[in-house]
Specification:
76 residues; mainly beta; four-stranded mixed sheet; 0% helix; flat
Length: 76
Amino acid sequence: MALCTGERRANRQQCNGTLYRCECGAEGCKQKYDDDCSSQGFNVNGKCFKCGAVGKYASISSVTADHAPRKTPAYL
């Protein structure tokens, strides 16, 4: 899963929360309070800040589609 690179408002450190993508295309992390992170895209209830859809998101994989899975050596 991909991690958020936004900055937390309280301590100005990197967020490292899970990144989500809404079906409208908006991306961001999900936080307990509004404006907790500079890259926040969803509130605690899963409401998208861009389109207002609730629960219409999925986590973003950090593995790209063109990445081949690791092959096990034949001797194992």
